[in-house]
Amino acid sequence: MDNIWKTSLWQQYGAAIDMLADPITRCPAQLWTINLWPDNDDQRYGQFWFVAYHCLFWTDLLLTGTMEGFAPPAPFIRGKLPDQPYSKADVLRYLALCRQRCQTTIEGLTEAKAQQICVFEWMEPSFLELLLYSMRHVQEHAAQLSLVLGQQNIPGADWIPRASANQS
To answer: Between the N and C ends of the chain, which has fewer C-beta atoms within 10 Å?
Structure first.
């Protein structure tokens, strides 16, 4: 795959991850469990910490291109809520891991891998399309988390145009 495509894809996906890092980093302890929205199954699904974790879980999973055999790193668990919210430190470590995995995945992207069809229950995209889909998912949740902090008068980054070089 052409280097300009890989560089551009990383610069934008990395910027989305950096925009997700901003509200997670800025979130004060008293807002870590604030509800962004109500959830009928369990209120924790709408809490700040879970939205951040959910976004990272799916980022990590989608970078593999399959749901088969995927497990997030400890202390995170797949398929159920933890007894206590994950800590900000754990979430930030997961974010750093996902950021590095994303950069490595994109740097190693070949034409064949980009064209590989990934089968999920809800769609069957090429791996390249899956990367773009995942990048949009990261940006969506970065915006939600930033909005809730802004509503609490906690300022943050206005816009991050490209991946930061010093976070890898």
So the answer is: C
Tell me if residue 35 falls in helix, strand or coil. strand
Secondary structure (3-state) at 126 = strand
Q: Range of 55's domain?
A: 3-163
Residue type present at position 5: W
CATH at 134: 1.20.120.450
Distance from first CA to last CA of the chain, Å, rounded? 22
pLDDT by residue for the chain (168 residues), tens digit each? 789 999 999 999 999 999 999 999 999 999 999 999 999 999 999 999 999 999 999 999 999 999 999 999 999 999 999 999 999 999 999 999 999 999 999 999 999 999 999 999 999 999 999 999 999 999 999 999 999 999 999 998 889 999 998 664
Domain total of the chain: 1
Tokens 């809520």 belong to which residue?
81
